[in-house]
Write a structure and sequence with these properties.
The protein is of the alpha/beta class. The protein is 48% helix and 16% strand.
């Protein structure tokens, strides 16, 4: 199984992406499993918050190009995280690429450790960060969004914190999470749910207004000749033909 869900520990449940051989890439199976787990946790009165973390050196490598999820299912998963009545915190101490950043952006809080690195690599394989813009653009500083969306450059956890992608950078990621989890344990569950609703209202408006068009854009780009060349080059570990 590519997902491990812990028992609650004083109200906190840890959900672990556990397919390090594939760098925790988002396959159709993993998206479905994560959606099912979150559905149960959202309805569980014993759960105060969810920590999303990973095994191995990657938090999430983006879409699994061998077994990709349907873009509509991925959008539904992102919206599910945003709408979940419990705060979702990302614990990141590994690489995050492409669609993995969309998953991270849907979380309410995030702490990155020294092993974390980030890159929006879509443009390098001939596509665009379409559906993940729903969760990333409201969070990122505009100048950082322009730079990293357009160039595909890699950046570290400290840069991610400055750009607004993560809440904090910490040399010890668990120590960085501890005060946030302590605060959530002290908060009233109903008040937490309503506060999260206030914080995410504009993001959900963007889902309502733009998700269908972005899913269509993603499908069109992934079916383009550029994407076929780019994904083929990626899977074969060679440069695509447009590299100068």
């Amino acid at each position: 199984m590519s997902l491990v869900v812990s028992s609650p520990e004083r109200g906190i449940v840890t959900v672990t992406l556990d397919f390090p051989e594939r760098r925790n890439a988002l396959s159709a199976e993993l998206v479905a499993a994560l959606a099912e787990a979150l559905h149960g946790l959202g309805a569980d009165p014993g759960v105060r918050a969810v920590v999303l973390t990973h095994t191995g050196t990657s938090f999430c490598a983006g879409a699994d190009l061998r077994e990709p999820p349907d873009p509509r299912d991925f959008v539904r998963l992102l919206r599910q995280i945003v709408e979940l009545p419990k705060p979702v915190l990302a614990r990141v101490d590994g690489h995050v690429r492409a669609g993995g950043l969309g998953l991270l952006g849907a979380c309410d809080l995030a702490v990155a450790g020294p092993g974390a690195s980030f890159a929006l690599t879509e443009v390098r394989i001939g596509v665009a960060p379409a559906v993940i813009s729903l969760t990333l653009l409201p969070r990122l500083d505009p100048s950082a969004a322009a730079r990293y969306h357009l160039t595909g450059e890699r950046f570290d956890g400290a840069q991610a914190a400055r750009a607004g992608l993560v809440t904090a950078y910490a040399d010890d990621v668990d120590a960085g999470l501890a005060p946030m989890l302590d605060g959530l344990r002290k908060a009233a569950p109903g008040a937490l749910a309503e506060t999260k609703r206030l914080l995410t209202a504009k993001v959900l408006d963007a889902f309502d207004a733009h998700s269908d068009a972005l899913v269509a854009l993603s499908a069109r780009l992934f079916g383009s000749p550029e994407a076929q060349q780019g994904t083929g080059a990626f899977l074969e570990r060679r440069e695509p033909p447009w590299v100068l």
